[in-house]
Amino acid sequence: AARCALGLAHLHARGVAHLDLKPDNLLASARGDVKIADFGIAEVVSRAGKYRAAYEGTAAYMSPERFDTERSLQGDGDEEGPVDPYAADVWGLGVTVLELLMGRYPLLPAGQKPSWAALMCAVCFGELPALSDGAASPELRSFVAACLQKDHRKRASVSELLVHPFVA
User: Fold this and answer.
1) What global pTM score does this model have?
2) What are the residues whose beta carbons fall under 8 Å from the beta carbon of 18, sequence distance 6 or more?
3) Mean pLDDT, all residues of the chain
4) In angstroms, rounded to a whole number, what is the distance separating the alpha carbons of residues 89 and 76?
5) What is the set of active-site residues?
6) Which residues contact 19 (CB under 8 A, 6 or more apart)?
7) Range with lowest mean pLDDT among 7-16, 52-61, 108-117, 135-144
């Protein structure tokens, strides 16, 4: 998680949003090095924070705001303000960490077929799985909760994650 967050910090500092962060796009070495791969839908974000927020990527790892392409594309004129393009990467990191902990995709019940509709409902409206004290440390639970805020404005930034007790 820490090394992935460092990679995201590097990208975000250069104005790049990956937009498809998931286990398949993280390459880990036996030494523990982590590389972020597959920049097929990555976007260079303009200085004004604008980016093409089209519905692209892997639905299971898309953040809630990315399912609402009208809001994502025209968000700078509404009362909520523009969508933070980097928040989608934080969401993907949170889902990935939770999946590594649980050993399966975490936002659907075990065995449920991951159709687009099921994924959209789970991501946008579903509850996060409850993690018992024995299943995860308080720091890990707090880290995942900071990543998986449904409202992108409440989601932690990568810089906040890098000082989080789980990775610090």
Assistant:
1) 0.89
2) 8, 11, 25, 36, 39, 42, 89, 92
3) 88
4) 20
5) 20
6) 41, 42, 43, 56, 57, 66, 85, 88, 89
7) 52-61
